[in-house]
Write a structure and sequence with these properties.
Blueprint: H1 3-28, H2 34-51, H3 61-90, H4 96-123, H5 131-161, H6 163-168, H7 179-187, H8 189-207, H9 225-237, H10 253-264
Length: 269
């Protein structure tokens, strides 16, 4: 597989994700136009995010593969929230400008608070000792910030511009009725709490037996160029893989030097 094939696979994945989002929005929103407006606004935010990645000096292949889809996933609910709020405000005023103004006033606190949680959550990745976490953390935090800015500034402009077409292309919302499920859960709330508390015990025991590994190659596709090249080097040149040694930071410098010397003396190092 060459770079062109990898690029095609990445583009195909992004297109598939966009199509899936559009289909879901078509089923859950009241207008045929809304999904395309939301995707357009979030697409602008993605372009802004990808175009400003020069500030980190470049991005890893893994980040490049997941950044677009992940940014759409974490910011799409902001736009849906604002659209729904606008539809609510239209019931109380005939002026669409007043409706979008009231919708923004009512939504800005909730949207900024929600986005701040996601923003700082991604920034927390920057404190990983693995450099990859810094790369993903900065880019995704930047993507969330740009996403919420576009939702609060660009989306209202799109809604006002295409409001007539949005109203003309309405359809029935295909959202399942969960009222029976809600009633069932509420009537048996104590039982559900008890069941989930009991389930914590075996889950904790199972989590303690989960094995951890530090081989990043194991998380990549087998047909990736870098993985294929690494396999070829192993077969043709008898090259071994890289290994990480996790040690306690309280170990003295003398012990570390002794350990390094013993490792260097091993065959194949």
């Amino acid at each position: 597989m060459n770079i062109h094939d990898e690029q095609q696979k990445k583009i195909a994945t992004i297109i598939a994700a966009i199509i899936a989002v559009i289909v879901i929005l078509l089923l859950t929103t009241e207008s045929f136009c809304i999904p395309f407006i939301i995707i357009s606004v979030l697409g602008i935010a993605v372009v802004y995010n990808m175009g400003t990645n020069w500030i980190v000096g470049g991005i890893s292949f893994i980040t490049q593969c997941i950044a677009v889809i992940l940014q759409l996933a974490v910011t799409i609910d902001y736009s849906i929230f604002l659209v729904n709020r606008f539809n609510e405000e239209k019931k109380y005023t005939a002026d669409k400008k007043t409706a979008i103004t009231n919708a923004l006033k009512a939504s800005v606190t909730s949207l900024t608070g929600s986005s701040a949680t996601t923003f700082f959550g991604f920034l927390a990745l920057c404190f990983m000792q693995l450099r990859l976490g810094f790369n993903i953390g900065i880019i995704m935090a930047k993507g969330v910030a740009l996403g919420i800015i576009c939702v609060l500034i660009i989306l209202p402009a799109f809604i006002l511009t295409f409001d007539e077409k949005i109203s003309a292309k309405t359809h029935k919302v295909h959202i399942p009725d969960f009222s029976k499920l809600v009633d069932f859960v509420i009537k048996r709330k104590k039982g559900f709490v008890t069941v989930f508390i009991i389930m914590i015990i075996p889950v904790l025991l199972l989590s303690a037996s989960v094995k951890k590994y530090y081989n990043m190659t194991a998380t990549l596709p087998d047909d990736l160029d870098s993985v294929l090249a690494l396999d070829t080097l192993k077969e043709e040149f008898n090259m071994t893989t890289s290994h990480f040694i996790v040690v306690n930071d309280k170990i003295s410098a003398e012990k570390l030097i002794e350990m390094e010397n013993r490792i260097r003396s091993l065959d194949g190092i």
